[in-house]
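Researcher: I'm comparing several assemblies side by side, and this is the next one on my list. It has 738 residues spread over two chains. Same procedure as the others: predict the full complex and return the structure.
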Amino acid sequence: MQFFKKDILDMESLSVDEITLILDTADRMKEISERPIKKVPTLRGKTVILFFYEPSTRTRTSFDIAAKRLSADSISISASSSSMVKGETLIDTARNLEAMNPDVIVIRHSSAGAPHMLAGMIKPSIINAGDGMHAHPSQSLLDLMTVRENKGEISGLRIAVIGDISHSRVARSNSIGFTKMGAHVILAGPLTMIPKGIEALGVSVTGNVEEAIRDADVIMMLRIQKERQQNFLFPSEREYSIVYGLTKEKLKKAKDNVLIMHPGPINRGVEIAYDVADGPYSIILDQVTNGVAVRMALLYLVTGGARNADAD
Amino acid sequence: MLMRIKGGRVIDPGNLDGIMDILIADGNIVEIKKDGFADDEYPEARIIDASDKIVTPGLIDMHVHLREPGHEYKETIETGCLAAAFGGFTAICCMPNTNPVNDCRQVTEYILQKAQAADSVRVYPVAAISKGLKGDGLCEYAELKEAGAIAVSDDGNPVQNSQLMRRALEYSKGFDLPVISHCEDLDLAAGGAMNEGGVATQLGLGGIPNASESIMVMRDIALCELTGVPVHIAHVSTRESVRAIKDAKKRGIPVTAETAPHYFSITDGAVKEYNTNAKMYPPLRSDQDREAVCQGIADGTIDVIATDHAPHSFIEKQVEFDRAANGIIGLETSVSLSLKLVENGVISMAALVEKMSTNPARILGLENNLLIGRPADITIIDPERSYRVNADNFKSLSRNTPFDGWDMKGKAVLTMVGGKIIYQDE
């Protein structure tokens, strides 16, 4: 199969076949990072700009390492170092970057839809590294890869996603991604954090964490942000952790070989107990490892790797 | 000079309906003749052929944002008037959220001077309810009235303090200044960029719930009942607001309401692909709300169709959705979109004229009927004219419309103010 997408904007616009191709490619890419010399010449001469309008350590480093392991030249720009602080609009900044002929622009932005806007206006491939509360496709793809790696297949699994669903692009992308691949996604959290109409994504919703955990194959905890208390979304971290946090006790209701995931960064002791985060079911660090492989696959595929290699 | 509007169907609800000729001399209506004049009568009159067309008292858009003073790159009083004329309006009310705010005699007079220089449609300035639109003190209504203000409103920066709103209603009564209320609970709407619901959730945009509007509609109805002073509810967008206004009217409370063409034409689905030209306040709502607004127009709950014409330049619109300015332009598409209501059987042509002319005139206290001796403020509409909207041809300085490229049937083809033709479609 060939890959013809110019941009990776969200999980909605990727077909099941495209997702499978990305995961298969990522599986093969993973081995490169395990070699003593972690570099292949595949993207030599390609330029990747990491355009991060919002703070990020994990995702930016992951994309940067992915680009370098494929021998692409990667350049990082952050909001504070770009001319956006001087009042330049996003479109003008992007057009200036385009004029330097990059092949891929990886963008992280606090506004939902910013990558879509750029994709429609400039030539280089756009990879969305997280836009507002909208989408985080590379995170969803690495989560799919990690679950598939551990469970063999995704179809038929019961995936519980717990926390602040409203403000989470990871929850949205995973709702779409896992549902598309045949899993059943259950979203749980206080009703203040469940957005209206989310059921339209094909997921179930509950305000009861125990119900979500019951018989789950995968439990994905979301980070809770302290500043949300100001919007009256929850009264205190103390109560949140008691009712909605994942503890060993609550975990008993899940399936025996349940997987614990978290997109990070973790608030230990709030949404996830210390011993659970580091416990035997946790694959949180596998997610990070696979993140590099998935991003290598995305860079390779959008730059036309599959087409140039004559479909291997 | 003598002018004869010949052979059109004249509709002036409550006054005239039928094929008639209208004779105009020196800017005033001097004769109205059922079935028209004989061919040899008034041979010297210039003839305006209105056969197969609708002739109405001049249309009034009681909710327009002219951006002068302060934001002349978006719209000036002159270009806004030109856009109004092209859209078939003979009079517009301009909202006070300019820079400086229209909260004192000097700004009201400035607007009227500019309008006079434009020599186009009639401009009626709406002054602010509160000083600087800040919501913490009344403006000087006596002076504003004397300077030429026609109503007061804190449009764009709604009054949160219920005591201030009560006092505004009571105090304005002394000067016959109608109060136009922009109903929005800013706390409920905080952080929202579009209608709360499935589309917002999928796009990852903050939602604005229906209740942020209806809660304030209900408050203002309660204050209207308390004070006995009429209140006019601007840009109704939700089914809950329509229901509350309908109930209030049934109980005899003197509330009136307007909606805008976008609320009965499109829904929040138009925001998909992050279209900033579908971003406005209140936001486009669900299809259920759109239907309730249509129903409210049909049953008389909603008295007026006004555009909330809100020009913004590319600088404010070609940006990230949540950072884009609220508002769309409407003057040049309003008649065509509203005619779809007639085409779809929601209301009659006469009811449409009521909502775009008779009712706004009544609410604002204007004389606008087609009567002998009155200035000839007349709009001629061709309900059969088909065309495609091309925003590049707009007279407005701005292009922020979600209706660009729409196929329309029916438009205003002539606009006359005081007997002077200020727009005529070739």
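Model: For your comparison table: Chain B has a mean pLDDT of 97.
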